[in-house]
Every structure is written in structure tokens, then in C-alpha cells.
Amino acid sequence: xxIQEWVRDPRGGKATFAQFSAMSAGHNWTExxxxxxxxxxxxxxxxxxxxxxxAAGFERDPGKEYEYNSAGTQVLAVALRRALQRKNPxxxxxxxxxxxxxxxxxxxxxxxxxxxRPDGMEKAFCCIYATARDYAKLGQLLLQGGQWQGKQLLDAxxxxxMSMPDLQPFYxxxxxxxxxxxxxxxxxxxx
Length: 191
Prior knowledge:
The protein has helices at about 15-20, 40-45, 50-55, 70-85, 95-100, 130-145, 155-160; strands spanning about 110-115, 130, 145-150, 150, 175-180, 185. The protein contains 7 helices and 6 strands. It is about 35% helix and about 5% strand.
């Protein structure tokens, strides 16, 4: 409903937000950090994040194969922004993050979230600059099942799903993990 551009695409029409979050949507994206001219660098330095990720299309059926894909996280941000702006056309992802997480978690410092251009879209695949102490509070929120000081900020079922491996044992839904390490852990890396 929020990504109308893919309704008629035989693969894109079947891709779910959960598959984008698990990096298994089949989105046509090559994640590369070694060549200076590549889609990920263009997404980072470019000024049309939404248009770029929606133009990428699909290269395989959704849900079949894991492939790390920064653009998939940006697609989720496009959908969220569109949903939020149906209710409030001026609401940004940064304002939503502040209202739903930064303020309730009592973060000590303002964060900086880079955008693709002035008055543009937040780069959801990366680029939230915050202190280690404030990031630790996000980790603690996960460890507490989405609860913070008696308030449920994230659904506990969502946290459970997020922290379970999907097609690979090291990745759940937008969350890296290692359940086999002597001290199992979760990791936000690149998000």
C-alpha cells in the first residue's frame, strides 16, 4: 500500500516489509564498498535516496535468499515516512524518532541524522550520529524487550522476531547477532 511503484512488478508486488528487514526481499542491489562508483556510494552521497531505491527493482523472488542490502533499509524508511505523512504531511523520520524513542529514553544529547539533501529524506541505512551512551540505551531497550521505565516503547513480540535469525544465523530483522558466542549478542551495524 505504501510502495505503489511495485504493485505491478511480479516480484516487488510480493515483497514484504519483513523481507526487506531480513535482507531477503530480492531487491536488485549490489552492496559494494570497494569501488568508488557504486549504488551504495551513490545512495550515501546522492540527493535522491527515495527515487534511487525505488528504481532498483527486483532480481529474484522475495524470501528465498539473504543478501545484505542498504537500500532495503531505505525502502523501509520510505514506507514509514509515507505512512506518517498521511497523518501529518510535515512529519519527518527524525521528528518521529525523537518523539517515540529519543525523548522517552531520556537521551543525554541530540543526535544528528543526515539527509540526502536540505529538506530531504533521512538516510535510514546509516548516518545517525549519537553518543555511545545514547546508543547503549537503544541496546538496553532491546534487552528489556522494548520496555523502558515501565512503558512499552516497542512491542515485545516485535523485539523477539527482530532478534531471531531469519535465512542466516547471523542476521534477524535489521539486527546482526551471534547466538553461538560464549556471551550471545546483538549488534546494530550500519543502520
